[in-house]
């Protein structure tokens, strides 16, 4: 008897790029051992499972694990032999293990290094990584023009910017010619504990940029096992998220599933990037997306968890340098 085809995640258009991204994107920072060690077998297994279940979008950076994430992702994509036109790879520039450098020189060299580690001829999206740590005027006047040249040279297809404080996006998008920045990647701002990206969505759409939201599990805060040591949240926020996770578990629900479904439910967001490092996580996250599309959100549990997190709602942490 023929086996049933696996349910797959939906694809969504990314702004004006013409790309169609899986609504669940594969965050590859865990492949750089950022959340604990990951073997080659686990890396290949997770990426293979991701493809099997319709995930076509992979996000990495030279910064993750000091280039390890790019290397492991490159090796894995090569081992799987999936045709290049069937997946979208985003990497970043300007943030490295030894610090930040958004100069035209550095980002121009950086893409060649990334392409070598990824074993690719081009990346679909090159994003300036965590621009709040650089001069935003340098991003506008030097870094993005350098990335435009890389686009013309065919090394990258689209240009993106990433970072935590939402004001960085308006600063840059208000100062570059329309259509220069194709993609914005925001993180930790569209989840159950912090949904401040929502207010910015109309503006971003008016600028025609594709919107990617990362870290729906708030970098581990909204998981049963909790965040890594380095997590920058306050003790109060960590404790409220822990209480929410326990509350869900005691009632047979899973906080990560609830959190991912919350982020996925806004279709103005083209892809929600979740960090994954095991076949099990890929299965769980794809299942969460498929169930959301079929049954909608678990409104009752969501309301209860939102009540637990209300005292810390939209609490964030400082990131970046003081802009002059
Ligand atoms: P996340 O919120 O996706 O959480 C990742 C953690 O959750 C990891 O420990 C992972 O093992 C765990 N996890 C994943 N699925 C799970 C499940 N079903 N059940 C329990 N635990 C689960 O945070 P993240 O990894 O920081 O963000 C996702 C991706 O977004 C990153 O890998 C990266 O690609 C991107 N990102 C980019 C930026 C930036 O550009 N500045 C910042 C943050 C994230």
TrEMBL record:
<dbReference type="InterPro" id="IPR020471">
    <property type="entry name" value="AKR"/>
</dbReference>
<dbReference type="InterPro" id="IPR036812">
    <property type="entry name" value="NAD(P)_OxRdtase_dom_sf"/>
</dbReference>
<dbReference type="Pfam" id="PF00248">
    <property type="entry name" value="Aldo_ket_red"/>
</dbReference>
<dbReference type="InterPro" id="IPR044479">
    <property type="entry name" value="LGALDH-like"/>
</dbReference>
<dbReference type="InterPro" id="IPR023210">
    <property type="entry name" value="NADP_OxRdtase_dom"/>
</dbReference>
<dbReference type="GO" id="GO:0005829">
    <property type="term" value="C:cytosol"/>
</dbReference>
<dbReference type="GO" id="GO:0019853">
    <property type="term" value="P:L-ascorbic acid biosynthetic process"/>
</dbReference>
<feature type="domain" description="NADP-dependent oxidoreductase">
    <location>
        <begin position="24"/>
        <end position="289"/>
    </location>
</feature>
<protein>
    <submittedName>
        <fullName>L-galactose dehydrogenase</fullName>
    </submittedName>
</protein>
<dbReference type="GO" id="GO:0010349">
    <property type="term" value="F:L-galactose dehydrogenase activity"/>
</dbReference>
